[in-house]
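Protein in question quoted in full.
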Amino acid sequence: MVRAMSAFKLLVPLPILLLSLSCNSEDPRLPQSLYDKALELNKSPDKKQEAKSLMELVAKRYPDSPAGNQAKKDLYLLNDLLKIDIQNRQREVKNTMRRTMDALTRYHQQKGEFPESLGQLLPEYLDKTPETSWGHPFFYRPYVKVPIEDVAGKRGAVTQRFNTKFDSYFLISLGVDLQPGGEDMAADIYAVNGEFLSEKMPFPMIPSPQPIK
């Protein structure tokens, strides 16, 4: 719940909150003024969450005003539009992750291991460093799946070998809040070795010790 509220605060700029708190509530023009501001914000694809917050404010504070009644009706449509927008953005994020994972696979096939950073994919495998549809970087972590393995000799003696080539990786989008967990725009998307993890799948732990490069 705390993380969800944090994400919500990130999406609502301070000027909008100040506007709702500082205006004279006795002014009969205020509800319509706030409603008109919400309509203006709604015209911008990146301001729909702010428009929703402002309409909710108008509907709650001025439920019997014409603007308040209209805001209630508009909120049903705006909620549907926001759901579609969230789905489209998450689809775009997954498509970017797929392109990045394809590039990682080609890098691994040619180099014998995964890169230390996504920057090493440029410019041969990707044109630019991948990021989410809201401009945040992905979290990428390469690792060795079996750092130390037993090797049996010809006479039965067992020795240990330390593997140093990155043969696995995590690729994660932490949502708009850049924090683990959350819903909607703050929802996380996890992928391991080219496969997306469902919400029910446990996140695998990185075994230790890992090589230092």
